[in-house]
Amino acid sequence: MAFDIQKIRDNFPILKRQVNGFPLVYLDNAATSQKPKAVIDCLVNYYSQYNANIHRGVHTLSQEATDAYEQARRKVQNHFSIAYPETVIFTSGTTHGINLVAHGFTTLLKKGEEVLVSAMEHHSNIVPWQMLCEKTGAKLKVIPMNEQGELRMEVYSELLSSKTRLVFVNHVSNALGTINPIETIIQKAHQVGAAVLVDGAQACAHMKPNLKLLDVDFYVTSAHKMCGPTGVGMLYGKKEWLEKLPPFQGGGEMIKEVTFEKTTYAELPHKFEAGTPNIAGGICFGAALDYLNHIGFDAITAYETELLAYATQQLQSIEGLKIFGTAPQKTSVISFNLEGIHPYDVGTILDKMGIAVRTGHHCAQPIMDFYHIPGTVRASFAFYNTKEEVDRLISAVKKAQKMLR
Amino acid sequence: MTIKTIQDELIDEFSFFEDWTDKYEHLIELGKSLPLIAPSLKTDDRLIKGCQSKVWLHAALENDKVVFTSDSDAIITKGIIAVLIRVFSNQTPEAIIEADSSFIDKIGLKEHLSPTRANGLVSMLKQMKLYAIAFQSQLKTT
Q: Which residues of B touch A344 (CB under 8 A)?
């Protein structure tokens, strides 16, 4: 499909909204993406045509819902090039997936063993590992980053040893947009026998990872950042790992047989999918993948790369503006500050002009500490943003600078 | 002046601006007149939680009236505190406790009351009232 930006924008009803008297410019895509009509229709269709609980009922609606849910699992499997559908676990989102793996490792980690985590992690990717290390007596070590916002790979190599059991790193940094070299990170970890969990929350809206080629042990992501509904995500794990990990939550669906003496856990993926899942969410996650694949990730990447280059160049032309995160390998995220002006003030003025950005520490306090700043203004772009919107951002930033100086 | 009089005065003052730019410029201007907290009092225990920017608030009882001083690293936030201080500083604890805060809506700063704004206007108000309650009980016991 040819990349027709106007047609694409027409797919997103919310982009027609006015905010504070201005047409909305939505540049908070790293927080959550907007939803195309195909996904909204999918939700409405589910609830108005075949809402039923899945995997249990013998009636027609339950069959239809189960089929659609399992078909969505296949879509996720195909999208991420995953070998077996049962290694796709539907979760409530990235954080859930991370916690599930961290919980599982409490039974596998021993005192004195080590867990490596990158310096540019989101809070949700730090706290579970701290808790894990407290419980098991394992040690948490941090892979540092440099001024450009890239991981220091030479230090990573030094940190790896036979004691390393796990490495956790995000595919793309939410605060800086840096694309981490996960291929190398995975290869090196495997050389010392360590497993790798990659947080793909910020990557999957911009690229299509091939998990088979990556040979990654675990990969987690959220649907809502890639045009899907909130409250649903995916955990991929290699079969041998998922079989080894204990279940995270007890409940219906995850058991095979229950007697008062012993419960036998269900097969994958149900072992990790206790209770009634987010059925509509799962099905429409599939619809979101269909939508994105119809446009095609080659086209999305090409368009976003151009948009990022244009926005970066335009922002850099503003005097007193500093961009944080200048790695050559980046997704379309720009974190910046105006000299002497608090990011919160800038965000407030931009909002008055209909421009949605994120301000603050982006749940990545260690990165802010690294740069000695309270936070940044973060403009994050999607394939439905335009150069005209970048121009609106630029003139609004200039106005904010004038007002706040 | 009573709290009510000052609130009405502020509503009047802000109704003058039709354009949001002018209103915010005025707010920023007000921030510059904020009675600043003494640098030695800018300690972590005087930081108000729930703000994206840092806000320090201090209260002292002078002649049975509560006097607030404050500061913030963000200037719009500073303007908002300046408005609150203009209303609530130099008032008796009782008047502060009883005061309503609907004037914030009326001067067009309602959006700052939403918890998602994370500028902590709600937390600031709460903290001011808490100080007033503390001073009131202090006055009653002495």
A: 52-53, 74, 76-77, 119
Q: Is A359 exposed, middle or buried (0-12, 13-18, 19+ CB in 10 A)?
A: buried
Choose the closest CB to B75 out of A342, A374, A399.
Answer: A342
Closest Cα of chain A to B117: distance in Å? 9
3-class SS of residue A144: coil
Domains and CATH numbers, chain A: 5-30+297-404 (3.90.1150.10), 40-293 (3.40.640.10)
Chain A residues inside the 8 Å CB shell of B25 = 403
Smallest CA–CA distance, residue B120 to chain A, in Å, is: 12
The residue from B51, B104, B107, B132 that is catalytic is B51
Q: B-chain residues within 8 Å CB-CB of A345?
A: 53, 74-77
| Nearest partner of B119 among B87, B73, B69, judged by Cα | B73
CATH number of B3-141: 3.90.1010.10
Dist. CA A210–CA A195, nearest whole Å:
17
Helix (H) or strand (E) holding B80: helix B75-88
Residue B51 falls in the annotated catalytic set: yes
DSSP 8-class letter at A248: S
Q: Interhelix angle for B75-88 vs B20-32, to 10°?
A: 70
**pLDDT per residue over A168-212, tens digit each?**
999 999 889 999 999 999 999 999 999 999 999 999 999 999 999
Q: In this structure, is the dihedral angle defined by the CA atoms of residues A379, A385, A386 and A392, taken in order, positive or negative?
A: negative
Mark yes or no for CB contact B52/A360 under 8 Å: yes
Q: pLDDT per residue over B6-34, tens digit each?
A: 999 999 999 989 888 999 999 999 999 99
Residue segments in chain A with a per-residue pLDDT below the cut of 50: none
Residues B125-142: b if buried by 16+ CB within 10 A, e if exposed:
bebbbebbeebbeeeeee
CA distance A371 to A212: 36
ipTM of the complex: 0.87
- In this prediction, residue A258 carries a pLDDT of 63
**Which secondary-structure segment (H or E) carries B23?**
helix B20-32
